[in-house]
Amino acid sequence: MLYRKIESLIEEHLLGDSGKILLIDGARQVGKTYIIRHVGQRLFENFIEINMVEDSLGERLFAGTKTVEDFYLRLSMSAGDKMHERENTLIFIDEIQVYPQLLTLLKFLSQDGKYTFIASGSLLGVTLSQTTSIPMGSIRKVRMYPLDFEEFLYANGMNEAAISALQSRFLKSEALDETMHDRMMDLFRKYLLVGGLPDAVNVFLETRNIQRVREIQAEIHDYYAADASKYDSENKLKIRRVYDMIPSNMENKKKRVVAKNIEGKKGKTFIDYRDEFEYLIGAGIALNVQAISNPQFPLSQSQGKNLLKLYLNDVGILSGILYGNNMRAIMDEECSVNLGSVYETVVASELLAHGHTLYYYDNRDKGEVDYLIDDYESLSAVPIGVKSGKDYTVHSALSTFVSNEDYHIKKAYVLSNERKITAKGKITYLPIYFVMFLGTGAGTENLIIK
Question: What are the CA-CA distances from residue 275 to residues 115, 187, 225, 228, 242 (Å)?
Fold first, then answer.
């Protein structure tokens, strides 16, 4: 079984007494149902699972449910023998977004307190934005992502002691020796190929067959794109167009979405496609990095409204689109291939999975930076640059940005393939694989971001 860090969060919540219902949000195929089922069956004697997609395609038993009493009555028709006490009965409502009224009903199920509940959904960001009565105060919503790099390391045989030793090196600003570095870079490159979708990771571990892995990634990629038509038939073509443009946008210098290119119509602006962007981001199949107009802490105060960059939610899907079954582009570091887009996708997904909100800054005169995150310890913005080539110290735009005293930058990072950890002024150079520790830990030196 694949190790998922969210398992401990689910367990702690279910064993706690917060009075709230845990709602796991995330794109399809990231492992939500599997991990909830695994924890629920282990902790509760009576585990009841209802999949609302299956219900909607069959009896539609829960389609008209509006009251707590009605919900219990309908549930008892199929699981009455398992409905006992709160302490030993967990009711798992899967794909809850199919019946939006059930999201509102969660508040009353929580207040009723008769059973323990947990729910999950694949389009909760979209559905909640369209729900008139959101049960705030009664739910705890947590987003789940594909396996991050640390979880991929566990899947490939690393244990807690090894991860802890790596983190210790990171916290002390100590580089790995060449043998360890080469091993980490080998696993990092395999992560670029495989990504973090559980089905793809499992097939990779079982077969080491890149063609099989690519088939799974392509199927899920098509599934994501087709999903739009089920929930937004009016705008499905535009949603599909924006989604399909993400890989090509990554190959452009600016990497941001250009509104006029979506339909090839002049005069179109960001606001014309706001719903399409919100769908892709809310569904969890695209990751957003918002433009910032004034790169000072807290970054949310000057968030731009009309510019953003979008990344695919899984780097394996992206590398499959770009390179197909040819592994040499990544594993052999082909000199003619620019891996910047896949490196940036990994960094975006890692930082978001660690709870950061991502921003970027681009100003011709004042400098630019790939990512900006808030550092609540130093009360400053932290710029992060990503380099996939050997010229990792060449970054005039970042240097200009960091040297601007108006921004009050205290530290910055450049992530690259370089083994050594060095510092030059405010900029610290880190191996790319240490991105998994940005935002974790506490303590010393200038490498800690809380």
Answer: 37, 38, 15, 12, 11
Q: Which structure tokens are listed for 381?
A: 């913005």
CA distance 168 to 157: 19
CA distance 144 to 197: 11
pLDDT of residue 123: 79
For residue 83, the model assigns a pLDDT of 97
The answer to whether the CB of 361 falls within 8 A of the CB of 372 is: yes
Give the integer Cα–Cα distance in Å for 364 and 84. Answer: 65
Q: Which residues, given as ranges, of the chain have pLDDT below 50?
A: 440-450
Tens digits of residue pLDDT in 138-188: 899 999 999 999 999 999 999 999 999 999 999 999 999 999 999 999 999
Residue 84: how many other CB atoms lie within 10 Å: 12
Strand spans (E) along 236-333: 286-292, 303-312
Chain center to CA of 167: 21
CB 369 within 8 A of CB 414: no
Beta strands in 171-285 (DSSP E): none
- For residue 450, the model assigns a pLDDT of 24
